[in-house]
């Protein structure tokens, strides 16, 4: 089920297999029949490392975590949950209602057990019922051949607002795990406070890992750690790639997209056939529960690089996707309408052989035509286009030091708070901070319309660095010119530059990575990069020689000889990254001149909605 | 219409052709003409055998009819009279078959001298009926027509399979509409860079 993970030099299928083995080990250590209970947030990630067969082979059923008593006939109940106290309460309720004689409970914490959680269990006096309490050290989940994610949505929030650096520590552990699997990473670059913290931890942990220093350099040549806090504009901007738009409108969770089934013709056909059949037999249509047109009948689509058409479309600007899809549909139409009367038997034979492939292409193209159609509808809404225009004006620094009339209008109309705050924070990021009167104006207007509670939310945004007063440097304005963050002659179809992902704006993080690929690396950006908050750091991990542990000098000879081979660069976004940033990096990798392959790691793939929500929430 | 009118087996003697067995299907002729046609056909067959060298096949056009004749090296001859549409190859295959069959059933010694009633060969009428449809005679032809029929079934099946799933027309319309709606996302290109000045 995971062949798409292994297409690159860093074979992420190894990561998936290693995670799966860990689970199997833990499960096999429990005697007797078992059932696994998961909370909703864990179901997706579990699907990223295991296949259903694993559980059916062992006759293990997967159950959702709800407080009611459920009909479970197994001797052992295993909870696989993250170490969150709120989840512990749910687990306790479940244990209490599902206790029965001879039953044992176990917990597998992902990725690490927590004393806080165990204390909670003790407080609720259920510890006695638990047998094994273990960890599943799943730090990075493989999402695709070149993307791994910790699936920690609130990482940025936890660190910047609550001061809880657990996520950073876990990221460090994850980095060491990756090095254990793929080898030592010799060169490290980083920018930002959180990035530095991750690296400090990772370095410390790595000292204990003898294997890292004894072997040759591993599959990854470089690591670039980027703190989300150095570029808060990009995650707030509307993404314009196909995948980005799907995520923003519908949400892609662990490579899965759920849409109402009624949009898909095969569903409608099946439905009408069923209705016809029911009518023919005189039966009652209502008696066929699986065909009711309830809203909750959803079709799940898998979206990852294993789907060939999706792989072609996902990273492109939506306008290019329109044309591509139309072309593909025409192509299929030609093949299907080929005049079959004229064809001879050998030609027919060839056609029949290719028929399954053609039908599959047709089905997949049809699905994406439907999805693109749905997105197109959403794009034609006035509000979307007005918001986009306002965003774009901010991004080119037009009228940035004044309260925006557009935002004032939105507030007056009591528009969705999340969107209003997003635009305000976007303006703040582009202006590199608000003048005091502007900030006060917004706070006043928001409190008037949305009530005083909004001030709490604003306080969170300030702690997170999304809203702040102006300091001396106009980092964004300067970088916009020096790094060409906005380009005038933007091309959305067949682009030559990464700015197509937001139509004319190149994500700052992506430009930083782009510059790091040049011969001088970040040296050429010395002055500008210091405008961005947080330390800029560089580090080496060199091979230890001999028992005494002497370090080999500087760049090892093997590295220079590999100049002609593609560099593999691991880019880690501490705090989240968007699909648009991933698309930009993939674009860079696709350009022959750069001679690079990226593996992208992140705490979570975010979009403008999820990022803001996590920071707004308490 | 494809029809076989008569089948005859002759023995080509030194001076004349001796009719050994004959059969005919004259349903397509008006009742009162049948006797005459029969005689004519027998006469034509005899004549043609006499004029054909041994070990030779011939097909002779005679008014609206084709006479197919095969005289074997041992002077046993077969004549098939059919209309123009009856395939020549099938006719000759059939004659060969009948002669082989005849040879197997009737001793060679009887051929030169026996009269028609003495020859114990009754299979001719059955042959005639069966091979009214040339496809029965010729496996090749039969296969060809089977093949053609299969091809048609195949094409229909393919069409049915292609129709499954999403309606192609709908998909084409949707995708055309998609591609026509393309508007550049970057709207504010015209706006001058009224960029912030340093305070």
UniProtKB/TrEMBL annotation, chain A:
<dbReference type="Pfam" id="PF00995">
    <property type="entry name" value="Sec1"/>
</dbReference>
<dbReference type="InterPro" id="IPR043155">
    <property type="entry name" value="VPS33_dom3b"/>
</dbReference>
<comment type="similarity">
    <text>Belongs to the STXBP/unc-18/SEC1 family.</text>
</comment>
<dbReference type="InterPro" id="IPR043154">
    <property type="entry name" value="Sec-1-like_dom1"/>
</dbReference>
<dbReference type="InterPro" id="IPR036045">
    <property type="entry name" value="Sec1-like_sf"/>
</dbReference>
<dbReference type="GO" id="GO:0016192">
    <property type="term" value="P:vesicle-mediated transport"/>
</dbReference>
<dbReference type="InterPro" id="IPR001619">
    <property type="entry name" value="Sec1-like"/>
</dbReference>
<dbReference type="InterPro" id="IPR027482">
    <property type="entry name" value="Sec1-like_dom2"/>
</dbReference>
<protein>
    <recommendedName>
        <fullName>Vacuolar protein sorting-associated protein 33A</fullName>
    </recommendedName>
</protein>
UniProtKB/TrEMBL annotation, chain B:
<comment type="similarity">
    <text>Belongs to the synaptobrevin family.</text>
</comment>
<feature type="domain" description="V-SNARE coiled-coil homology">
    <location>
        <begin position="139"/>
        <end position="199"/>
    </location>
</feature>
<keyword id="KW-0488">Methylation</keyword>
<dbReference type="GO" id="GO:0006888">
    <property type="term" value="P:endoplasmic reticulum to Golgi vesicle-mediated transport"/>
</dbReference>
<keyword id="KW-0449">Lipoprotein</keyword>
<dbReference type="InterPro" id="IPR042855">
    <property type="entry name" value="V_SNARE_CC"/>
</dbReference>
<keyword id="KW-0564">Palmitate</keyword>
<dbReference type="GO" id="GO:0005484">
    <property type="term" value="F:SNAP receptor activity"/>
</dbReference>
<dbReference type="GO" id="GO:0005794">
    <property type="term" value="C:Golgi apparatus"/>
</dbReference>
<keyword id="KW-0472">Membrane</keyword>
<dbReference type="Pfam" id="PF00957">
    <property type="entry name" value="Synaptobrevin"/>
</dbReference>
<dbReference type="Pfam" id="PF13774">
    <property type="entry name" value="Longin"/>
</dbReference>
<dbReference type="InterPro" id="IPR011012">
    <property type="entry name" value="Longin-like_dom_sf"/>
</dbReference>
<feature type="domain" description="Longin">
    <location>
        <begin position="9"/>
        <end position="131"/>
    </location>
</feature>
<dbReference type="InterPro" id="IPR010908">
    <property type="entry name" value="Longin_dom"/>
</dbReference>
<keyword id="KW-0636">Prenylation</keyword>
<protein>
    <recommendedName>
        <fullName>Synaptobrevin homolog YKT6</fullName>
    </recommendedName>
</protein>
<keyword id="KW-0175">Coiled coil</keyword>
């Amino acid at each position: 089920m995971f062949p798409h993970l292994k297409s690159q030099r860093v074979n992420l299928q190894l990561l998936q297999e290693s995670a799966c083995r860990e689970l199997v080990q833990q499960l096999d250590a429990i005697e007797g029949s078992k059932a696994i209970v998961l909370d909703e947030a864990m179901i997706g990630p579990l699907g990223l490392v295991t296949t259903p067969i694993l559980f059916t082979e062992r006759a293990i059923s997967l159950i959702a975590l709800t407080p009611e008593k459920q009909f479970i006939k197994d001797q052992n109940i295993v909870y696989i949950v993250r170490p969150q106290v709120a989840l512990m309460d749910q687990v306790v309720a479940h244990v209490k209602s599902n206790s029965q004689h001879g039953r044992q409970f176990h917990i597998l914490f992902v990725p690490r057990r927590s004393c806080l959680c165990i204390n909670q269990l003790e407080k609720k006096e259920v510890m006695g019922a638990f047998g094994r309490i273990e960890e599943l050290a799943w730090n990075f989940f493989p999402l695709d051949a070149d993307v791994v994610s910790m699936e920690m949505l609130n990482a940025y929030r936890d660190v910047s607002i609550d001061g809880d650096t657990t996520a950073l520590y876990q990221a460090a552990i994850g980095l060491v795990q990756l090095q254990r699997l793929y080898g030592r990473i010799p060169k490290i670059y980083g920018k930002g406070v959180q990035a530095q913290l991750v690296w400090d931890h990772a370095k410390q942990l790595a000292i204990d890992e003898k294997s890292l220093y004894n072997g040759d350099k591993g599959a990854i040549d470089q690591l670039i750690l980027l703190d989300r806090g150095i570029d808060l504009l990009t995650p707030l901007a509307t993404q314009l790639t196909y995948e980005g738009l799907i995520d923003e409108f519908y949400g892609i969770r662990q490579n899965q997209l759920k849409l109402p089934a009624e949009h898909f013709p095969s569903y409608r056909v099946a439905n009408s056939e069923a209705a016809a059949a029911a009518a023919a037999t005189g039966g009652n249509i209502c008696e066929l529960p699986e065909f009711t047109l309830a809203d909750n009948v959803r079709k799940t689509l898998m979206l990852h690089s294993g789907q060939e058409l999706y792989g072609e479309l996902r990273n492109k600007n939506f306008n290019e996707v329109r044309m591509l899809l139309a072309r593909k549909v025409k192509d299929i139409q030609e093949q299907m309408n080929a005049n079959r009367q004229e064809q001879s038997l050998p030609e027919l034979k060839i056609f029949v052989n290719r028929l399954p492939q053609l039908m599959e292409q047709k089905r997949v193209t049809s699905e994406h035509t439907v999805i693109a159609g749905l997105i197109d509808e959403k794009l034609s809404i006035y509000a979307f286009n007005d918001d986009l225009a306002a965003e774009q004006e901010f991004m080119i620094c037009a009228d940035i030091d004044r309260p925006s009339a557009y935002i004032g209008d939105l507030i007056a109309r009591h528009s969705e708070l999340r969107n209003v705050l997003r635009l305000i924070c976007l303006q703040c990021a582009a202006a590199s901070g608000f003048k005091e009167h502007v900030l006060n104006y917004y706070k006043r207007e928001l409190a008037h319309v949305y009530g005083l509670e909004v001030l709490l939310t604003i306080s969170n945004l300030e702690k997170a660095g999304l809203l702040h007063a102006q300091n001396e440097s106009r980092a964004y304005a300067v970088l916009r010119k020096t790094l060409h963050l906005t380009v005038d002659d933007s091309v959305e179809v067949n682009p030559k530059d990464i700015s197509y992902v937001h139509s004319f704006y190149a994500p700052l993080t992506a430009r930083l990575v782009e510059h790091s690929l040049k011969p001088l690396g970040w040296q050429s950006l010395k002055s500008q990069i210091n405008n961005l908050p947080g330390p800029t750091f560089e580090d080496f991990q060199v091979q230890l020689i001999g028992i005494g542990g002497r370090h080999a000098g500087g760049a090892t000879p093997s590295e220079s000889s590999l100049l002609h081979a593609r560099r593999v660069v691991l880019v880690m976004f501490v705090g989240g990254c968007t699909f648009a940033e991933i698309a930009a990096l993939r674009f860079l990798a696709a350009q022959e001149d750069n001679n690079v392959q990226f593996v992208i790691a992140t705490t979570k793939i975010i979009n403008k909605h999820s990022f803001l929500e996590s920071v707004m929430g308490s | 219409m494809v029809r076989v009118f008569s089948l005859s087996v002759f023995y080509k003697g030194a001076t004349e052709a001796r009719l050994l067995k004959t059969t005919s299907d004259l349903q397509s002729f008006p009742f009162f003409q049948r006797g005459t046609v029969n005689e004519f056909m027998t006469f034509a067959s005899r004549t043609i055998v006499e004029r054909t060298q041994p070990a030779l096949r011939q097909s002779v056009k005679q008014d609206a009819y084709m006479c197919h004749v095969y005289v074997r090296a041992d002077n046993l001859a077969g004549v098939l009279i059919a209309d123009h549409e009856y395939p020549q190859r099938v006719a000759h295959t059939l004659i060969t078959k009948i002669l082989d069959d005849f040879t197997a059933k009737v001793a060679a010694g009887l051929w030169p001298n026996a009269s028609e009633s003495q020859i114990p060969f009754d299979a001719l009428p059955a042959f005639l009926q069966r091979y009214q449809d040339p496809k029965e005679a010729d496996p090749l032809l039969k296969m060809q027509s089977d093949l053609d029929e299969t091809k048609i079934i195949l094409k229909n099946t393919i069409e049915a399979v292609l129709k499954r799933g999403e309606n192609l027309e709908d998909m084409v319309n949707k995708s055309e509409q998609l591609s026509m709606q393309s508007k550049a996302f970057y709207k504010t290109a015209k706006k001058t860079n009224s960029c912030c000045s340093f305070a």
